[in-house]
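Exam revision sheet. Question 4 asks you to relate a sequence to its structure. Input first:
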Amino acid sequence: MMVSTASVRTVALQDTLLSYQLIRAARRSLSVRIEADGVVVRAPRWLAVHEIEAALHERAAWIVRTMAWWRHHARPLVRPAWQPGAEVLYRGAMLPLSVRHGNRNGVRDARVDLLGIQVTAPSAEPDALERIVRQWWRREAEDVLMPRTLALAARAGRIPAAVRLSRARGQWGSCNARGELLLNWRLILLPPELADDVIAHEVAHLCELNHSPRFWAALETLRPGARQRRQALAEWAGLLRE
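Answer key, structure tokens:
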């Protein structure tokens, strides 16, 4: 079995010195992913370094822009100050956090109201607020993403063998040969349009377990324009690292 190899290289892009991780693997195409902690380039073993860096220069504007966006937003998106008034991410929007003190039966909960995200808790300790909101995020993921997945699967005329939430750090979703779908709970943090694109992508794999023209045709039927929105989705990839 061929083993992937990795190295760190540096290239100048738009007056910015970029360090990126280059991963060589048995693949046919080049991919560039911008994460909260840097740029990862996956390339075929046969592709020359000058060709790889030429591709980076072609995408320089997007790379520099997205890296700047993540420097300012990535960590606060999922690690706010965890105090009243902090902004918390939910379905692509930053909502103010408010706290209502409640000790009855030790009730701890969170919900969205007209003013933002309201947490009910015995105290406003940052650790407690973070724990409550993270548990709420996961419940929301189950309540929102599961029905949407089943609705899109019904449109595709397919019934998944199972649909489960994932905590994976490297991908938004997956589909295996048994027809089981895994969806990252962090999809609840994305704008609904992009979350639907991911769900439709995995549902389309129930029709074609590859990325053939038939797969892309199935995806286009489910979510017109989803393939073109993949770059917009890539700008949120840093969430997978948190």
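Marking note for examiners. The chain has a mean pLDDT of 86.
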